[in-house]
Design goal:
By secondary structure, this protein is of the alpha+beta class. The protein has six helices and ten strands, in the order ββββαββββαβαβααα.
């Protein structure tokens, strides 16, 4: 099994699940136990300061909106560029933290780009792979620039990433090379 950690997961134009329609997610973990990703382009209307105050975990010096990371509940998590507060290095210059102490430190010491996220997307073993078989997703290598550029709620990040990946017409996408005979004229 090849891990997809550090890849962008781009929803198919036909993906009807309202949790993932027109989403771009960053795969944080992908192994034999399943996959965990954070949706990058679903900003909420709640500012980080508004969401932080009730937690009473120290001052909030960071700014920005809180993003909805997926349909599964979870604590406030951060994608950031500060290696010293990292739990997981997802890709070069993109770190993930969910531990309360690390998140509090990041909120109190904002340096460099950061995206604050509540909730996540999770898949059981083999579930994400099955969704690839039904053409629900494309992947594209993530970069720090693409992860943090998606923080601009005024941009259509899904459109931009979809155009880079060049979705094939539905009939072409659904062809499975393993099912095409060596001489298609015999089909």
């Amino acid at each position: 099994m090849n891990s997809l950690k550090g890849q962008l997961l781009i929803a198919s134009p036909e993906l009807a699940d309202p949790n993932f329609a027109k989403t771009v997610s960053l795969i944080i973990q992908h192994d034999a136990d399943g996959a965990l990703a954070l949706v990058l382009n679903q900003a909420t209307t709640q500012s980080l300061k508004e969401g932080w105050e009730p937690l009473d975990l120290g001052p909030c010096e960071a700014q920005g909106l809180i993003y909805r990371g997926g349909p599964c509940g979870g604590p406030l998590m951060v994608l950031h560029a500060q290696e010293e507060a990292s739990q997981v290095e997802v890709i070069q210059d993109v770190h993930f933290s969910a531990e309360k102490e690390k998140v509090a430190w990041l909120v109190g010491h904002p340096q460099g780009p950061a995206k604050y996220v509540v909730g996540y997307a999770g898949w059981a073993p083999g579930q994400l792979e099955a969704e690839f078989e039904s053409d629900s997703w494309l992947t594209h290598p993530a970069t720090a620039e693409t992860v943090f550029a998606s923080a601009d709620p005024g941009k259509d990040f899904w459109e931009a990433m979809s155009s880079i990946c060049r979705w094939a017409p539905m009939g072409v996408r659904s062809l499975r090379p393993s099912l095409v005979p060596p001489d298609p004229s015999l089909n």
